[in-house]
């Protein structure tokens, strides 16, 4: 109402002044700015900016950048958002908690492990903010975006007990080897044909195949696998694309066509995944037929736990979507580091030789003995976390106190894991790549210690973490056992934040069989 009166008053002045003094346009603009300035000062020049304009929302004055009118710090986000947010927080002394605006969305972010624990483990932040493209792509019926409640807990239980239990992860070892054999063959072929290996494509295809067969079993056929690959790629683009409706209350509009494309993709996914499910049901599929893929697991659930047809599509589609890029991206980072640090590569190869030898392949059961290899993976997760802002944020379902700050319900909360893992007060020489820092003492990375929690923490911690890490360990060990990896051009570690934090330019290298 106040805004309405101010705007009417401003219009009245303009109507009176313009004809009377016969003013030029620039002058009118200047006058407008002057008369609107109290409005801007009131509603925009507050800690955190535009979205925090109501003083009741920030009574404890969480510090934060003012940003642009209406846009907040949206223009500063982009492919280095994690670095920019870390720099702003540090310059304002707001590493514990910082407020900012993304359009009309209120956000708080922490770059501190203790506050991160409070946010991720507290019950107040067990929902995700609604991203329209994610909802349209059915993820609100899957684990990642389902509101915290009975249905979401049911999905998490199924995932923990049946899909990602230690027994299920182990039962997929054979598949991991099979896919890795295939990748090793492709590396050799590329090397002999082009004298250079571009690992990204090989890892992406391997990772996609691994997750598709974990979800649907083998024998789906190359055509369907390829089609699923295109769908995942399109899904990544759509979720990563900027959508005005996520930051402003204008959900009906679709300036960029994202909503239209999401609808089209969802129809395709429903059609294809739906057909696969129906075919499996016709074949009487279930674990009793000896299959251990996720679809068989879902079809074999007791009646009271069973999911509807559409919910099953959403869950299986999400698994393929989430399980593909994270593993491939992390492995590309690790291999870039191995190519760059030849001494570290030689040291881990010695470790593999000592514990496994060269006459058989590394197995899952060898990994606990490969302490240095595990340390390398941890060090890469520290320096290049695939989710530097922990992928998807959390949403406060009710008012909550974080340390000395009041955070109102409806606020989006983020953790800047990248800032934590590069903080010199937490990590000695954080910019040095030094796996040895993890060999001296056991350091858990599954979410109990927030100094390094690349899979998140608390109720919404990544359910696929054991499968993801088992895949990365095994493939890394086998790639290093098979080849010596050498640079072909200078290794470029520039990064780019899309849905995950990727190497900006694909790694190019050479290999020599060992
Ligand atoms: C290197 C591999 C991976 C990394 C670094 C990773 C990282 C993450 C992170 C940071 C989150 C957010 C956690 C939070 O909010 O606290 C997450 C959530 C999730 N991840 Fe992963 N992930 C990986 C592999 C996988 C795999 C293989 C799958 C499934 C096949 C998977 C499925 C999911 C799902 C469904 C969620 C949403 C959980 C929820 O909201 O309840 N992830 N992941």
From TrEMBL:
GO terms for molecular function: heme binding; iron ion binding; monooxygenase activity; oxidoreductase activity, acting on paired donors, with incorporation or reduction of molecular oxygen. Its cofactor is heme. SUPFAM superfamilies: Cytochrome P450 (SSF48264). This is Cytochrome P450. The chain crosses the membrane at residues 7-23. Heme binds at residue 462. Belongs to the cytochrome P450 family. The keyword Cytoplasm does not apply. Keywords: Heme, Iron, Membrane, Metal-binding, Monooxygenase, Oxidoreductase, Transmembrane, Transmembrane helix. It comes from Artemisia annua. Pfam families: p450. Gene3D superfamilies: Cytochrome P450 (1.10.630.10).
């Amino acid at each position: 109402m106040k805004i309405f009166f101010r705007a009417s008053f401003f219009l009245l002045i303009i109507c009176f002044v313009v004809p009377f003094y016969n003013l030029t346009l620039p002058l009118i603009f200047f006058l407008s700015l002057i008369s609107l300035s109290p409005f801007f000062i009131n509603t925009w020049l507050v800690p955190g900016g535009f979205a925090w304009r109501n003083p009741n929302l920030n009574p404890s004055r969480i510090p934060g950048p003012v940003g642009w009118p209406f846009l907040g710090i949206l223009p500063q986000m982009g492919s280095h958002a994690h670095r920019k947010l870390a720099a702003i927080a540090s310059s304002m002394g707001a590493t514990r908690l910082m407020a900012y605006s993304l359009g009309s969305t209120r956000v708080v972010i922490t770059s501190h492990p203790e506050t991160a624990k409070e946010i991720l483990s507290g019950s107040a932040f067990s929902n995700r903010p609604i991203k329209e493209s994610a909802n349209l792509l059915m993820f609100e019926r899957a684990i990642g975006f389902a509101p915290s409640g009975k249905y979401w807990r049911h999905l998490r239980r199924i995932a923990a007990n049946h899909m990602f239990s230690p027994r299920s992860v182990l039962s997929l070892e054979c598949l991991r080897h099979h896919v890795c054999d295939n990748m090793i063959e492709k590396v050799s072929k590329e090397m002999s044909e082009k004298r250079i290996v571009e690992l990204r494509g090989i890892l992406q295809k391997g990772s996609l195949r691994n997750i598709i067969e974990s979800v649907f079993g083998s024998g789906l056929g190359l055509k369907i696998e390829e089609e699923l690959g295109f769908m995942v790629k399109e899904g990544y683009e759509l979720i990563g694309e900027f959508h005005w409706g996520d930051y402003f209350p204008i959900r009906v509009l679709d300036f960029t066509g994202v909503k239209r494309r999401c609808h089209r993709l969802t129809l395709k996914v429903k059609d294809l995944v739906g057909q696969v499910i129906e075919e499996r049901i016709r074949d009487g599929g279930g674990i009793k037929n000896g299959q251990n893929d996720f679809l068989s697991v879902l079809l074999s659930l007791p009646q009271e736990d069973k999911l509807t047809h559409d919910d099953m599509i959403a869950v299986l589609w999400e698994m393929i979507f989430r399980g593909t890029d994270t593993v491939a991206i992390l492995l590309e980072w690790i291999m870039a580091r191995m190519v760059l640090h030849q001494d570290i590569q030689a040291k881990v190869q010695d470790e593999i030789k000592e514990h496994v030898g060269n006459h058989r392949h590394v197995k899952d059961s060898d990994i606990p003995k490969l302490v240095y290899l595990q340390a390398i993976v941890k060090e890469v997760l520290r320096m290049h976390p695939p989710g530097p802002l922990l992928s998807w944020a959390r949403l406060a379902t009710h008012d909550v106190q974080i340390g000395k700050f009041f955070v109102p319900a409806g606020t989006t909360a983020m953790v800047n894991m990248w800032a934590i893992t590069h903080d010199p007060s937490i990590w000695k020489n954080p910019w040095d790549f030094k796996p040895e820092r993890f060999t001296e003492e056991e350091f858990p990375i599954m979410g109990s210690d927030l100094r390094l929690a690349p899979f998140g923490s608390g109720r919404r911690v990544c359910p696929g973490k054991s499968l993801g890490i088992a895949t990365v360990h095994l493939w890394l060990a086998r790639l290093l056992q098979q080849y010596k990896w050498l640079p072909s051009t200078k290794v470029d570690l520039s990064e780019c934040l899309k849905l995950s934090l990727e190497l900006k330019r694909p790694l190019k290298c050479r290999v020599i069989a060992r």
